[in-house]
Amino acid sequence: MIRAPRAVARALRHASTQATAVSSVKFNPVKFQKEDVEKVMAELPEFNFYEIKEGSPNPYAGTTLDRSILLDAPKPVLTAPKTEFSKLENGLKVVSIDKQGLTARLGLMVNAGSRFENSSNFGVSDMVSMMGYTSTAHLSHLRTVKTLEQLGSNASSSCKAGREEIAYNVDVLREYVPLVIPLMVGNVLFPRLLPWEVKSAQKKVKEGKEALLKDPAAMVSDLLHKAAFCNNTLGFSTTASERSISYFTPETVRSYMLDHFAPERMVMVGVNVSHEELTKWVSRSFADYNAIPLKKREEVKAVYTGGDVRVEGNTDLCHVAIGFESVPFSQKELATVGVLKTILGGGSATSSIGSGLSSRLATQVVKQNPYVESVSAFNTSYSDSGIFGVYGVAQGNKAGEMCMSIAKSLKSLTSVSKDELSKAKAMLKGQLLRSLDDDAALLQDIGSQIMVSGTYGSPADFAKLVDGVSEAEVASVAKKLLSSRPSVAAYGNTCTVPHYAEMEAAMKA
Length: 509
Description:
509 residues, seven-stranded mixed sheet, six-stranded mixed sheet
């Protein structure tokens, strides 16, 4: 059984609902320095690319399970986490927050997602991601893979293309951060893009499309963006199609990187890592090389169109998303949109206590129809637009009833009681503050905000804005959202999904 909250969090990911109208952050400038290579190498942790040598003699020999293997247990450093900001001489931004964790999460984000593609290179951002962690000027593909394996990072390393960014991510024990940073930077600074490696990666295009078809939530997300932003910017798919294989060449990938991979468009984010260490090794990785110069590019604004897209799939279930144009990053209204999302909430046929059983969608949609598998509200915000709506899953022959129930719930958002608002605000603040425990979400949130807006609003900052949301603001923002044309995406058994005009009429406030 599909659990909508998990699916929506993965495929209809709300791109940092914490970005808001906060004061701009101050970046500490970092100048490049000429350093003695031998001294720099001496600072690296002892490491062999192909093997990890056991200490001699083995200090753990004869150790039983009732004794700690920490021979010299370090004293804990109880320091409150704080977000620190720096900017390298070449314009690359470095941001970190050290929560004293043993595993460091690193993310290098480049503002070069699919929205910057055009008819001559559709799918190129996905191609760039497929070439992540292959051969660079310093490491062959084999050595890159073996290095990540020896560090225990091969399963957690990824390169993914989004609509606004391409993100290189690695999780590693914090003492090995100095080894991983140059490896990550090599992907954006001097990738070799060898013809045989590019040709080998072409098969991933077909694999990516097959994976998309097998993931209904991701498929609906892709279709919804196509409907909402028809043939422009945010409507471009993040997955390359098979027709793009003909121009999946080293020249296409290299040309796109030369146009968009300037350090001014990059953000390096670290969680559970010292800011001084992170900045030092990022700076060293760029210091002796000429980075790609910044090219002026046309900033095309996303145009919300609304519309309807339906694709039949090999499943008896119907996956539907209904959305409206939402607010972009760095707007105070985003707090109100977050409250509206919480009021709608979500639920599933197997919901348990504490999972939003009293939310509107749970009571007005799930409880009223035994054929509804799951339903959940979502909000996805970008630099200049966004999508707010509801994603639901039902038996194909009952999808029409679910769609009309969702439409009724959306229309009712213009009227919210004082008690309902108070409860939603408390729940939203709790969710925000608990998100601090999720290192991956924290890294994504910080990177997205800094890359798109140049500012960072922490969960605590956003919680303060949530406190100030009033009933009048909720009604006003709800009317604003519902005034846009709806976007409808359906996948699977869509035989009973109502006509677009019928759903549009049902949601007119």
